[in-house]
Amino acid sequence: MAESILLIDDETQFLVTMAKRLHKRGFLVREAGSGLEGLQELEVEPADVVVLDVGMPGMDGIQVLREIKLRFPQVQVLMLTGHADMEVAISGMAMGAFDYLMKPVELDVLVGKIREACSRSRKAGERRGLE
Asked: Sign (positive/negative) of CA torsion 117, 64, 51, 84?
C-alpha cells in the first residue's frame, strides 16, 4: 500500500511541483494551501506523513503542528522552511515534529525522510493495534 502524504504549503508552485514529483515516486499525495485547509484534509482522510511549511500567513506551521499533534498524534510531521531559524526548529522538534528540513530541499533527501517517517507511523499504528 502506498504511503499517504499531505503537503501543506502556501506557495502554489512549490505545492504543485512537489506533489507531482512525489506522486512519480509512488506516494499518494494530497495538497493543502493553508494550515486550516490541511487540518480539514486530515479530518476527511488521515495521512501517514504531513510535509508542513513553517512560514505561512494566517495559521503558521508551528500552530498547525500543535493542532496535528493534539488531534492526530499518530501522524508524522516533516517541517520545511525557507528561513534558517533554529528557535523554530527546536520548538517544532520539541512539539513532536519528525524532522526539520531547509528549502530548497533535494527531492532524494525529502523522499528519504518521508520513508523514515512513514516507517515510524506504521510502527506506531501496529503498537496501537496491540493495545
From this structure: negative
